[in-house]
Amino acid sequence: MNIIEVVNLSKNFKTKKGFITAVKDVSFNVKRGELFGFLGPNGAGKTTTINILCTLLAPTSGRAALNSYDIVSNPNEVRQSIGLVFQDPSLDERLTARENLEFHAMLYNVSKSLRNDRIKYVLKMVELYERKDDMVNTFSGGMKRRLEIARGLLHYPKVLFLDEPTLGLDPQTRSHIWEYIHQLRKKEDITIFLTTHYMAEAENCDRVAIIDYGEIIAIDSPDNLKKQIGGDVVSLVAEEKAMAKKTIEKEYSVSVMEDDGKLYFEVKEGETFLPKFIKKADFKILSISLRRPTLEDVFLKLTGRHIREEAAEADTALKIHARRLRK
Amino acid sequence: MGPDEMNRNLMGIYTIWLRDVRRFWRDKPRIIGATIQPALFLFLLGTGLGKGIIGSFGKDLKGDYLSFIYPGIIGMSILFTSIFSAISIIWDREIGFLKEVMVAPISRWAVAVGKAFGGSTVSVFQGCLMLIFAPFVNVHINLIMVATLIPLIFLIAFSITSLGIVAAARMHSMQGFQVIMNFLVLPMFFLSGAMFPITNLPKWMDLFIAINPLTYGVDALRGIILGMNNYPLIMDVGLIAGFGIVMISIAMVIFGKGE
Does the structure's ipTM exceed the value 0.90? Predict the structure, then answer.
């Protein structure tokens, strides 16, 4: 059963220079109980799509239904069915953790008899129960994100949206957040829809949609996506690069890509291929390595470029810095 | 709208109101600041100006300048507190909190109404706090007066908060605050008759004074506290209420359209 159905969804934004298409004729379904991921570089249209699905933005065309409610004609029912963790913080820092959750419970009509137990439960889940009466402005970035996850779960949503849930967090906190996400799937009957530009995080998903320039260019399980790559990835440094490239392409009928002084190509059953390859090579190999394909390879193959995590990280760091300065 | 939806919206209004009141109550420096500022106007500016002004205003003043401006200063306190409460929408937007409210399963117009009630409640508190200065300006306040003043202050505050919400509804940075201050708040204060009688003024000023809702607020306050009216009380109250209804309706429409 599909909990989210999206058909030919598009979103244009008006700018001074004309229209920008942020989401271009996107169609996909998310199954109930799935951990579904949107993978793509910054500005690919991930957040715009989420904002449309959570009724913050109206689509330009196309339609979408969530928990079988239409997002345009039944916005309140859609909002009741979803929990949201935004990319940017959205807590009231001058209230305590518990007050933030109480406020949310009241807005989402969680009955008074359930409210306190539920608040206790979600706070314990993200290990913030001891800090429940502390002002949120005393919390670290990771704690705030955890509190937002707890808040998103408070009203028993059918779908939890996590927009870049680990953005701007250190690696340790990041893996901590992932522990909660996995725990959550075991404990609650919930569908998780997340966006990320971290390849490694996308690997955790049941299915991943790769999105670029507002279009979905591939959608499948991480394993199946990686099967598009013809097996394993061999990378090598050879003394005579041009000659080596030509020979390999001719001998094994594969396409060899060159990046950063290294040659890359894909082979099936790399473990048995490698010894034979080295023995047979009539050019000097300086170094060689074999690895399983990653989603990064898939993205590279589909778009011809890297997602460039470093650039995105630097950009994020700047954004966070700018936000702090404003305060 | 079904009964369930109405209940949700009422709960939403209550929740947003509660947050504003709670945050105000916790912010003691704000309460102190918002009490001292009008006190400075009243006692420093009032005493200084009062010395020279009595003669020139003559019979319009009917007595002591300090007690004359006292209801005006209460009006000023309501004006500032209401506008500040409304403006907190911009701040909520900037820190991202407004999003949390906008995706909640309540109608968005309820957000505007909740904010308006929150700002009004806070203003009633702040306005009533001004009553402690009454003995220092030779004004006698009794319980019946207080009972009449509370709903009046609420009405004035509701109208002005709604106006502030309309002004802040589409603003995305605190820079807009200066604009609101200079083009809305200060002119409204100066042209309300808070600091001087509005009789015998140049014609161009009369127009601005007549379209300023605070004029009628100050007139009603002065009527109840000092028994001095330019207009009948019923007219003051009617005009303020009418203005408030128009403003809150506009605010509800703007919020209903979403971000």
Answer: no
